[in-house]
Each structure stands twice: as structure tokens, then as C-alpha cells.
Amino acid sequence: MSTVEAxxxxxxxxxxxxxxxxxxxxxDVKLTPFTLFRYVASIGLLIFSIILVGALIFTGxxxxxxxxxxxxxxxxCILAVTWLTMIEGQQASLVGLPPVDPDxxxxxxxxxxxxxxxxxxxxxxxxxxxxRQFMVLLVVFTINQxxxxxxxxxxxxxLPAGVKQVFLDVPGLGMIIFTCILGQLTTQVNAxxxxxxxxxxxxxxxxxxxxxxxxxxxxxxxxxxxxNILAAISGKPIITNEEPRTGATFAFxxxxxxxxxxxxxxxxxxxxxxxxxxxxxxxxxxxxxTPGLAVFLFFFFMFIVGMLEGMQIAFFAVAKLPANERGTSxxxxxTCELLxxxxxxxxxxxxxxxxxxxxxxxxxxxxxxxxxxxxxEGNNIxxxxxxxxxxxxxxFQGAVITTILASISWQLAASAFxxxxxxxxxxxxxxxxALFLEWTGLxxxxxxxxxxxxxxxxxxxDEVYVGTPEERMANNHADKEMTTEQDVGHxxxxxxxxxxxxxxDALDGPIASKDAIDEAA
Length: 521
Hints:
By secondary structure, the chain is mostly helical. The chain has helices at residues 2-9, 17-27, 33-58, 63-67, 70-96, 110-119, 124-147, 161-167, 173-193, 195-198, 202-217, 222-234, 247-276, 281-285, 291-318, 330-339, 346-369, 386-392, 397-416, 418-423, 425-440, 445-457, 462-466, 469-474, 514-520.
């Protein structure tokens, strides 16, 4: 992971060491005995999880290791985790940089500027985020196939049954920690404060183009139909930076929407038929789970993912509103009181706990949608070819379903109805659960790895290059104003962080005007 990104950082611009050190001290976390304990325990759990994954692969107890060989499984797993780091980190950068004047980093970070020039042209940021969402699911499902155990009860390093149940059973704490820390949180922590350095490389540019190509294929285009329906229901227009589609462009767009609906329908049909017939990995591992219960679990965990994806968008949307407009019901007010406590320190905490819950749900959905039909025995679903059946057995149709129905749709709904999400009592319950998971420190090791990686790649905090939001305003480079109306029907309303590029706060309130800054000076 670090080798690929290190090549990108080799041409890092020279910076004022004293200035960089001053900003480092602002971001430093006060170390307490409890914080140190969480760091050490989390790193220990990560090391144990890595050993478990290696043992599973080289004992042939994962699907790819069985179907191919352990070395293929290991190499694919490493490549998938490496790519996931960029997919997740790049989002934090590209969602946080739009308000910042690109001239401030054009010369010092030419590849970051190229990423921004492409991503911020027209509605490309939405296209990137839609393609990226599918890429996340696809890569996580791939990691699941490479590293998750086929039989959690098989002997692994002579571990007792209780340990295997906690770390290997579906969804498996080991897989969750392994994926969250190595593939997601470490790079997100760095990219959320080092947005400019994080994507100043060709790996980021390649990932951006890949996500754009994925969106262009039209696999996810049924989400645009949902986008238009939700906008019509809300009565809020979708603000676009492009001309209306006409002629061939119009036909090509809606043709891909129809194709996407057909693909989604096929994926749902395959999954539901397999679930009702007991031909999925979850039914094989746990024969006591009836077909009806399997179907319920499938939609239940899709609902959990959807709520958490929507909450992310809704929380960042209402953060831009005055405090008295954020909640209009008992649970809405309770949610806001907890979420925006202090200067919003609980918002990053929610994002950590949310990540743990979402990844666990992804692995569960992956197990539910993976098929166990043996090709060549005449039982292929819908009579598809043996090659097609072998592909369906990996469960990637679940990635399509989850991306459209459990991720993008709920994000779009939250962008149109953020207050409704806040007023939902389930939102408050999930917020409490997410904050508790973050408090346990299961993934606290991500901060340790992030600091090591930051030093190794010579990343600097964004304010070293572009100043704080207040400094940019004072120097006539004020950030572009972003409003809640611009979030409607878009996926750009949420990101890993709640602060503005170069800010020291966990969550920014309104930035003072230039005149106010001058008076204070």
C-alpha cells in the first residue's frame, strides 16, 4: 500500500518546516492512558486479524484460495485492499476541495489540480461518486471472497471455538478490523486533513478515471431515475452544472437507465430465487436459517446500510443549518444535541462507528448473496451457462443491488429530506450504537498507522499549502459558498469529515466575514 502511494509523494513540494510543525501541533491528540490503551489494543487486534487472514488463505479456507490457489487469493486480496485505500481516501479529498480556489495548489500540486479539474467539471463529481460507490462494494466483496472463511468452524491455528466464533463467524470481527483499518480508515484519516497531498499522484488519477468509466457503463444508472423521482416528490430542483440533455445524449442516457433497471431486476431475481431455494453461502453455513429468515436478513442489513449511508448525508447537510432548524421533533433534537455536542466532536466519532457497521453489513450481504450452486450438475439458476453460474457464485450481483438500493438511493433520499432523517427515532438509535463502537477503540489503530504513513509519505496538513478558511478569506481567496440546496439530488453532501479544508475544527460553523477578520486583527 505505502509503496504505491510513496511513488506519488516522491515529488512532494518543499514546505516551510517551522510552519508545518506548528500546524502538526494543532492537530495533535492529547494522549491519555485510555487513549494509549485503545491504540495498543487496536494495533494488537489488527496484527491478530492479519495473521488470521493469512492462515485462512494458506489453509485453503477461502473461496478464491479453493477455486484458484492461496497465492492468487493473497495477491488479489493485497491489491484489493491497496486500491480500497485510494478509493476511500480520494473521496475525502474530492468532497472537501470543491470550495477551495484551485489556483492555490495548481503549481505546488499539479496532479491534485488535474484530479480536481476533471472531477469538478460539470457534474463529474456526482459521476465519480456514483462510480466510486460501486467500486467500494465491488472491492469489499472481492476481499470477502479472498479472505473470509468458507468454514468458520475449521481448525485455524488451533484457536478455541469461542475465539473462532468472534473473529471468523459471519461477519467476523477479524475481517471487519482488517478491512476497516487497512483499507479504509487509515487513508481516510490522512486524506481528511491532507486532501491536497493525498491525491497528488497518478494512482489517484487512475482511480478517478476508473470510477468515471464505471459510471459511464450505465450499470448504476437506475439511480438517476430514483434521483428524479425523489426530486419531484420533494419539490426541490436538482441543481446541475450542465445543459439539459437533448437528442442522442438524451436517448443514450435513458437507454442506460433502462439497461440498469434490467440488470438490477436480474440481480434481484437471482438473489431471491437462490435464497428461497437455500442455495446461498449463509444457508450452507447455517442450515437452521430458513429461506424466509434469509430473505428477511438480506433486506434488514440492506436497510441498516441504507440508514447509515443516508445519515451521513443528512448530518453534513444539517450541519450547514442554524442550530434551531436542525431538528423538528423529539428524536430530531436529541440526535442533534448528541451529534453536535461541543464543536461537533461526535460527528467524526459517528463516521468511525458507521464505517464498522457498514463494513459488517457489507460482509453479511456478501455471504447472503454468494451462491453455492455447483456448475455442471444441471442446477444452474435460470439455466445459465456453467461459466455464468461460476461467476454468480461469487455474489457480485449483491454489489449491484447494495450499491443502488442500499447506498445511492438512501443517500439521494437524505439529500432531499435531511430533516426527515434526523427526526427518525432509528437514526438516534444507530447514532448511539455507532458512537459506542467508536468508543470501544476497535479501530483506533488507524490513527497510529495514519501518523506513520503521513510521516513516511511526507504529507502536510492542507493549511500548510492553502491556509485556514479564515486566512484564505483574508487573502482574497475565500471559499465558494456551498448551500443545502446544492446537495439535493447529489451525493456530494457527505464525506468523511465535517470540517472545511485547512480547518482545525471537528465541525465548522459559519466562517466570519473578511471585514470581521480585519476588525479582529
